Amino acid sequence: PSGSGKSSLIDYFVDMNNKLNNGSIFILANSVEFYHESQNCVVRHQEINSDVNTLRDGLANVVDYLPNLVVLDEIADYESLERIWHIIDSGALVFATMRNKSAIEVIQALIALYPSNNHDQARMQLAKSLRVIISSLLIPVENGEVVPAHEILISNSQIGNTIINNNVNDIYQTMTQGKKQGMQTLEQDLYFLLKSGLIKPEDALEYANNPTSVKEMVKYRT
What we know:
single chain; four-stranded parallel β-sheet; two-stranded antiparallel ribbon; 6 strands
């Protein structure tokens, strides 16, 4: 959601790639909040309603720039998503934002962009192309500061098969058991912040997608 820190997180990833890798970065946004000067990468910025009329129009020409990394605002329609798959198939890594609070909601929202008779196609494409989903929240604490909490899904063959077989709700359990692969649920991170004394119990419950899961972790791990 707005104010969750996703723009800052993506700008960090862009900055890291710009400094450490050689290549081309293409940023297509409704509003360019932070301008990245080209360093090791050639960075191009395009603003919707200024440089191009719509996201779809901007995506139509992205491949011509031979980008290694493409950064987009929110994916909102089927046609844009189809063009994103084309960009990924060309070999580029794509960062895009959604307004959903959890990895499962993101997957469901992307599939729902397709016409209902094409959902199987959407699942196949998503299972092939998805690499990671990071869900970010900023939790207000004392002194006007905030603490970030994250849910992280790393796509692997198990996740891919779960998506293809339309068993998306099983993904939550896979994330809870995927620490070695770098995965975690939002509730696991909230529990960590709670045990670290960074947030209060009421904060953990308020911001959790699954408050019952937080309660169970407190009950059985304390």
